[in-house]
Amino acid sequence: MIKINFAIVGENLIDLFKIDDSFEPHVGGSPLNIAVGIARLGEKVSYITKFSYDFFGEMLKGTLRKENVDISLSVTDDDLHTTLAFAFVDERKVPKFAIWNRSTADSALSYEDLSKIRIDEFDAFHFGSILFATPAADHILKFMEDVKKIGKYIFFDPNYRPHIAKDENKYKADLIKGWKMADLVKCSMEDAKSIFGLDDFKNIVGVVKSIGKTVITDGENGAYVISKDVDHIPAISVDVVDTTGCGDAFMAGLIHEFAGNNFDEKHLISASKFGTITAGMAAQKVGAITSFPKLEEVKEFLKNLKEGSNG
Fold first, then answer.
1. 127 class by beta-carbon count within 10 Å (0-12 exposed, 13-18 middle, 19+ buried)
2. Which of 189, 242, 246, 251 is the most exposed place for a label (fewest CB within 10 A)?
């Protein structure tokens, strides 16, 4: 496996999880989670965003430094606050969110901030996600066009959250622009249905095939690799404790394994299988970042899985 230097561009926020009658703060944001997930798998990662000056901003920075994610290319805004996402877990243990993202630091990320990045210093870029419901969307898309022109590999995870954008149609249109721009997209089944306004998986496949290589994740039903053909990857069987962050854990595993094989499409299915492993391991613990496995833990898990199947 080769070592890859990754740049991750996206939001930073605090997930406030409802526990009884109070809320407990946890570092969050899909791209941020993915940056930590990739770092835990032994890769070199730089996280590019705009932080707030406030207490939560310092909490976010501290967590990323602790996880060996480089934040030297990010900027801090002295006037704006951190985005907050209030999380409620439903009876199916699926998190639901109410997001406060108006006039926050990460939503003010600009092309001027991003244009200072030396694109040639990185091997691959990942970008997303709910920043596409904010003014930062246009700036990120413009920057990723620069990345594409230079020929760097681009990953995208188009998370969709209803009722967080002033212009819902532009939000969805920008997510589709990002989808078309990326070399490989990972999207949940729920998000794909919402973005395209489709309920039938066959219709989603038809649309996705016209755009580009995509992996659709569907919780306990596993994942679908959509390229020339459609290949189903079953989920691994685990005792599920909490699914928060499982999609991000899948993406981190997918990116790590796929990039480590020189972005060769013949390895896309095996990389997606690796993603089901990291997602399954994350589902066995509470929280997002706290549940992401380290590379040695994945190796031990795979070893035990192999020994169990042989036994």
1. buried
2. 189
Torsion from C-alpha of 270, 8, 228, 200, nearest 10 degrees: 100
Q: Do 300 and 277 contact (CB within 8 A), yes or no?
A: no
The closest of 20, 29, 18 to 52, measured between CA atoms, is: 29
Instruction: State the Cα–Cα distance between residues 88 and 221, nearest whole angstrom.
Output: 23
Q: Where are the domains of the chain?
A: 5-310
What would the two tokens of residue 18 be?
Answer: 């409802």
The structure tokens listed for 146 are 């620069």
What proportions of the chain, in percent to the nearest 5, are helix, strand and coil? Answer: 45, 25, 35
Give the whole-angstrom CA distance, residue 250 versus residue 186. Answer: 9
Q: Count Cβ atoms below 10 Å from residue 206 Cβ, excluding itself.
A: 13
List, in sequence order, every beta strand (DSSP E) within the chain: 5-9, 13-19, 22-28, 44-48, 50-52, 75-77, 83-89, 95-100, 124-127, 153-156, 184-188, 214-217, 223-226, 230-233
Q: Which CATH class is domain 5-310?
A: alpha beta
Compute mean pLDDT per 10 residues along the chain, 311 residues long, and list them: 86 89 91 97 97 97 98 97 86 77 96 97 96 98 98 97 94 97 97 96 96 95 95 92 89 97 94 96 84 93 75 53
Count of other CB atoms within 10 angstroms of residue 65: 11
Contact of 126 with 155, CB cutoff 8 Å: yes
Half-sphere exposure of 73 (CA within 13 A, CB side): 21
For 2, which DSSP code? -
